[in-house]
Amino acid sequence: MKIIKNITKLLVIIPLLFTSCDDLFSPALENNRDLDVMYEEPGYAQGVLGYAYSMLPYLTKSETDIATDDAVTNDRSSDYISMATGSWTANSDPMSQWQSRRAAIQYLNLFLAEADKVVWAKDENVHTMYCDRLKGEAYGLRALNMYYLLMAHGGWTADGKLLGIPNVTTVDDINSDFNLPRDTFQECIDQIFSDISKALELLPLDYNDIKDADIPAKYKAIGVTNAGDYNRVNGTHIRGRLTARIAEAIRAQAALLAASPAYNEGTTVKWSDAADYAALVLNRINGVSGIDPTGHTWFMNKSEINALGSGAVPAEILWRGDKDNSTEDYAMGLSQEKSNYPPSLYGSGRINPTQNLVDAFPMANGYPIADAANSGYSANDPYTDRDSRLSQYILYNGSKYGTSNAEIITGTYGTNNDALNKESTSTRTGYYLRKLLRDDCNPDPSYNTAQYHYPVRIRFTEIFLAYAEAANEAWGPTNSGSHGYSAYDVIKAIRSRAGVGTSNGDAYLESIKSDQNKMRELIRNERRLELCFENRRFWDLRRWKASINEPAKGIQIDKQSDETLKYTTIAVEERNYKDYMYYGPVPYGEVLKWSNLQQNQGW
User: Fold this and answer.
1) What is the pLDDT of residues 204-249, one digit of tens each?
2) How many distinct structural domains can be found in the chain?
């Protein structure tokens, strides 16, 4: 890690990306200003916290799925191709979080160490509320960064220890000892839970404008009587920043990670703990009855997206980034469409879903396509009567899409560059991405039409699936512990939302609801479908200790002399991971620098 040698000489802080908070991080930090300046300039002090927001670990585009069995890319220079096909090393790690997460934690440590000295407001009560909220955000953000560090770098060493990262909660300076050993994975999880607990003590559940009667009791007790003072600190204009609700979700994610097969032998976190933490989040939206009916199509719910106010979230989204409709390549308004639309629609067709993923979508009646006796699947008509999410997430041969409702032909008989392997921007698998894109965008340079998009950080569906996974392992498919809903209830609701099994009472789900192993397979498959292209698959396969070497497959569709179509599964790209790669490496350069850092086994 590049240590900040003199923390009083701070870098210029990158402005926050969400507009609801821009004014709260101005003026930005300037080079070579003394640390004590922050005590009298709260805007400057918030710039320290702002750095952690500017370094949030969330990807704004679909990237990591191309290193799994769900997708490949036609960008042959991609680091993820190199990683997935055998070139992943400790000094070439596209998944590394070591530098950025630990740097963010250092800024958060600095903020927490100094926050009580800052004059946040002249009014003592308003000062207290500011100090509470900002420190609560810092604790929650520190937990988030630790969670991403554990996903990327937690692992077993050659001497049989499950380690995390060096857990540093104090401010490094020139006199600090940087040659620290890694703390255990459990100690790092404990730090996450501790930080979340502190965040929950300090943060509101959400940022809303309230009336005098609704002032929280803890602030009434210190003399806050005017809701305007509370709203100044915690009102709707703060939406977009970390809240207690978000902190609870981060804890649920971390608990699921710790309880998973790759880690649970080295932690004390049980499946029931993970289920309980997820249920706490879900109970706030009334459990299964709170599932958003259109949550699975959140990216294409146009009127909902367009109408979103600053920092506001729809029912499906727990935390999101800025809404944007800019046309620049670095922005979200059109960049995904430019990258992933088929060539005929002026895109580069970068992300190509695999046949592996397509085969994971069941039939509309709920049966897997492999269940020939009940599913009704036909290999000669593979896209008819399928789960509706298939056509919502993936463009296949014959799909109609775009502002012109053009037919996309990926078969070899296609007459343009949409056809399989036609040229460098053509699909390698016979499929193009649809999820995350809007069909009312137009990358045609003559129009260059962008639309509003926003990056999702946490969806409620992800927490529902976390609960289903943990509850099934803890109590079986139909039991619910102390909660009013089971893994079965969650999966039935998610499938029903997509129209799966609604014609027959979801007979397949009913047939397996007493079998924990089959329910586990179904829950994992539903997670695969619901969260595809949202940068979850790579981490899920590894925490499950599931196969990471499934070859990526595609489909070749040829038109025969009688005009019928012939479908042939083809090999597209091998996966070449070693067994030790279920756990990512500590960066090679760090191990060379610091003798007390143990590397994960195999690296």
Assistant:
1) 999 999 999 999 999 999 999 999 999 999 999 999 999 999 999 9
2) 1
pLDDT grade for 12, boundaries at 50, 70 and 90: very low
Q: How far apart are the first and last CA of the chain?
A: 18
Q: How far apart are CA 391 and CA 435, in angstroms?
A: 9
Percentage of the chain beyond pLDDT 70 is 94
Name the token pair of 524: 């994992």
For residue range 540-594, list pLDDT tens digits in order.
999 999 999 999 999 999 999 999 999 999 999 999 999 999 999 999 999 999 9
Nearest to 603 by CA among 106, 145, 127, 93: 93
Condensed to tens digits (0 to 9), the pLDDT of residues 400-426 reads 999 999 999 999 999 999 999 999 999
Residues 386, 369: Cα–Cα separation, whole Å: 9
Domain annotation covers residue 251: yes
**Could you give the C-alpha distances from 363 to 70, 163, 390, 393, 599, in angstroms and in order?**
18, 43, 10, 15, 45
Tokens standing for 37? 């300046």
Q: Which helix (H) or strand (E) holds 475?
A: helix 460-475
Count of alpha carbons within 13 angstroms of residue 451, beta-carbon side: 22
Residues 6+ apart with CB under 8 A from 561: none
d(CA 15, CA 4): 20
Separation of alpha carbons 279 and 256, rounded Å: 12
pLDDT score recorded for residue 18: 32
Q: Is residue 121 part of a domain?
A: yes
Report the mean per-residue pLDDT for the chain.
Answer: 94
In 3D space, the residue among 532, 513, 435, 502 whose CA is nearest the CA of residue 293 turns out to be: 502
Of 459, 467, 456, 458, the residue nearest 287 (C-alpha): 467
DSSP 503: T
pLDDT at 430 over 50: yes
Pairing of strands 552-559, 456-459: unpaired
In whole angstroms, give the CA distance from residue 76 to residue 369.
32
Q: Are 456 and 462 in contact (CB under 8 A)?
A: no
Residue 27 belongs to domain spanning: 19-54+96-269
Q: Which of 99, 267, 270, 262 is nearest to 601 (CA)?
A: 262
In this prediction, residue 32 has a pLDDT band, given cuts at 50, 70 and 90, of: low
Q: Is residue 150 in a domain? A: yes
pTM of the model: 0.94
192 inside domain? yes
Please report, for the domain that includes residue 118, its CATH number: 1.25.40
Cα–chain center distance at 246: 13
Provide the β-strand partners of residue 320: 456
> Element (H or E) spanning 490, and its range?
helix 487-497
Tokens of 258: 């710790």
What is the reported pLDDT for 25? 38
Q: Shortest CA distance to 414 belongs to which of 539, 293, 558?
A: 558
